[in-house]
Amino acid sequence: MTWATEPGARNVLPPPSRKACIFCGGAGTPFFEIPAIPIDVSALFRDADEARGAPMGRLALVFCERCGGIFNSAWDPAALSYDTRYENSLDASAVFGQYAEQLARRLTSTYATGNGSVVEIGCGQGRFLQEICRLSGSRGAGFDPSYHGPPRDGSVSVERRLFKAADAEGARLIICRHVLEHLEDPSLLITELAGIRQDGPDTVVYFEVPNAAIILDGALPWDLIYPHVSYFTLESLTGLFRRSGFHILDAGPAYSGQFLYVEATAASDAADDSEPPDTDAVQRLVASFPAMHRSIVDRWARYLEDTRRAGNRIAFWGAGAKGVTFLNLVPGARAIDCVIDLNPRKRDSFVPGTGQRVSDPEALKLIRPKVVVTLNPIYVPEIRERLSEMGIRATIVTEPSDAPRLQ
């Protein structure tokens, strides 16, 4: 791999040439760029210097007016590695755990799998697959190169490798959560799954991805990360499935609108693409996003500077992908006193790009922060409860304009 160096960045990957839309082949329009962001946002760096020297890549977003798709034209799959050092699990959060449990119950009650089999593409450490199989009495097969557990646990087996379409033969339910946005050609996987012919009841697929609309409207702009080549709106997601040979059973937002899901079965007839999707709403979001993103970054930079100047210690809660983006992009963020994450595997790792140490919540007892910054409002009640248990009185801030004035 050859690396180039740009002013203000380290090990910046030279972007490939990508002109056609990865969803439909249409011509795309560039609309937003970040010159350098960490490539391996979910890698566990155990050395601060290694983390500070983490490879950086370019984000160059393109919008396709034909299908409404959004993708990073500077994305290079060769730069990414999904191995046992990869860690993006949210299972340590009770809030996310409750969501996953409710989803598992809904899927098993809606699509009874009986004694059939369930396949999960990109199953992580297999916890969701285990829950599905426990509730339904099904057999489970998971596939993920980052898996580091035993090959078999009860009725669930997991292989440490990438999924192949042949692995889904005979499955009653195929699950793929937060994988599609990582694929260079997302339609290839979906088309292959649509082509699998099963004996007996129709196979149902459940796919889940981040919701691009909530990124573009400024609610969660930090979910722009290098490992995601594509960004889906509901229209572009369902359109992709229809064009790939699926009939949509259900689709919509989930997890307080932060995710999108689609449930589908292979269609008996080809989809009718004669009616182009309505992309006007997405076009408006795309047009306003660059200026809004600059405003958000500037607002956070001023808030961090003013808070620190007033002598208040700041802690940052959440060292996942969103947090890595924030800490690398916002001026002054790498000077934050303490970075916290509930995931025990992240403890004593270091943030890619900035080299800040990641600690568990107990570290807050030592620094006694006045402010705790977290980017995702859905976790505020969970954080507030944990702070209360430790006797820490701090202001939780998710948006600078809503934060109370500190003395």
Q: Using the alpha-carbon principal axes, give the shape.
A: globular
Taking all Cα atoms into account, the compactness measure Rg is 21 Å
The succession of helices and strands, N to C, reads EHEEHEHEEEEHEHEHEEHEHEEHEHE
> How many β strands by DSSP?
17
Helix content: 25-40%
What are the low-pLDDT stretches, counting only 5+ consecutive residues below 50? 1-10
Strand order in the largest sheet:
6-7-5-4-8-9-12-11
- Beginning-to-end CA distance, first to last residue: 51 Å
Tell me the number of helical segments per DSSP (H or I, 4 or more residues long).
10
Look at the helices and sheets and give the structural class.
Answer: alpha/beta
Whole-number mean pLDDT: 88
Topology:
Elements: E1 28-38, H1 48-52, E2 56-64, E3 70-72, H2 94-110, E4 117-121, H3 127-136, E5 139-143, E6 152-153, E7 156-159, E8 171-177, H4 186-194, E9 204-210, H5 212-216, E10 230-231, H6 234-243, E11 246-254, E12 259-266, H7 280-309, E13 314-317, H8 321-329, E14 338-340, E15 358-359, H9 364-367, E16 371-373, H10 380-389, E17 395-397
Parallel strand pairs: 4-5, 4-8, 5-7, 8-9, 13-14, 13-16, 14-15, 16-17
Antiparallel strand pairs: 1-2, 2-3, 3-10, 6-7, 9-12, 11-12
Helix pairs in contact: 2-3
